[in-house]
């Protein structure tokens, strides 16, 4: 399912936005990740107290669909595979997690998978039985020369 964001005039304001503190409580902000395209990602761990108020507006160029996944899945080897990659002179592992819901198979991989592995490790207070080899550029500042 691909959604198109509504025009700015129809977008929710901060007071009714699903990120409003009455609907979502921020628990933690993880360290930033930096992508090969010089984008900084600040993962936020939050609790949604009223799921009926959760109505995300998707950016179709970045998000194809929204679905629920058990976080503990990212601490297990089930439905997981990995690929050894070399990019920008750096060798690392890319993790892929397959999840089926409503007869649709989703693959959660790369940066998103690593962020969810880290979040699950923090929340469940245990490390996964998998090897993590992250690319160096994920932890570099976007202000550094990344070539």
Summarize the structure.
This protein has one helix spanning 110-124; strands at 24-29, 33-34, 40-41, 44-48, 80-87, 90-101, 104-109.
Main traits of this protein?
Nudix hydrolase 15, mitochondrial-like; mainly beta; 1 helix; single chain; 147 residues; two-stranded antiparallel sheet; 10% helix; disordered N terminus; CoAse; NUDIX_hydrolase-like_dom_sf
Could you explain how this protein is built, in words?
This protein has 147 residues and is mainly beta. The protein is built from one helix and seven strands, in the order βββββββα. Strand 6 (90-101) and strand 7 (104-109) form a beta hairpin. This is Nudix hydrolase 15, mitochondrial-like. InterPro entries: CoAse (IPR045121), NUDIX_hydrolase-like_dom_sf (IPR015797).
C-alpha-based Rg, rounded: 17 Å
Distance between the ends: 36 Å
Q: How many domain units?
A: 1
Biggest sheet strand line-up: 5-6-7
**What is the string of helix and strand elements?**
EEEEEEEH
Helix and strand composition category: mainly beta
Approximate strand percentage: 25-35%
Query: What is the number of helices?
Result: 1
Low-confidence stretches: 1-16, 142-147
Q: How would a textbook summarize the main sheet?
A: 3 strands, antiparallel
Give the total of beta strands: 7
Mean pLDDT: 79
Helix percent band:
10-25%
Shape: globular
InterPro entries: CoAse, NUDIX_hydrolase-like_dom_sf
Protein name: Nudix hydrolase 15, mitochondrial-like
Task: Draw up the topology in text.
Layout lengths: L23 E6 L3 E2 L5 E2 L2 E5 L31 E8 L2 E12 L2 E6 H15 L23
Antiparallel strand pairs: 1-4, 2-3, 5-6, 6-7
């Amino acid at each position: 399912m691909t959604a198109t964001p509504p025009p700015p005039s129809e977008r929710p304001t901060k007071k009714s936005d699903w990120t409003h503190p009455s609907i979502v409580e921020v628990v933690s902000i993880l360290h930033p990740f930096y992508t090969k395209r010089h984008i900084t990602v600040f993962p936020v761990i939050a609790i949604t107290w009223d799921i009926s108020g959760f109505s995300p507006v998707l950016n179709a160029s970045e998000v194809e669909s929204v679905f629920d996944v058990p976080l503990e899945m990212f601490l297990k080897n089930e439905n997981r595979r990995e690929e050894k990659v070399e990019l920008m002179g750096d060798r690392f592992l890319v993790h892929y997690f397959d999840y089926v819901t409503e007869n649709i198979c989703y693959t959660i991989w790369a940066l998103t998978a690593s962020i969810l592995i880290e979040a699950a490790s923090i929340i469940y207070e245990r490390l996964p039985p998998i090897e993590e080899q992250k690319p160096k550029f994920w932890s570099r500042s976007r202000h550094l020369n990344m070539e």
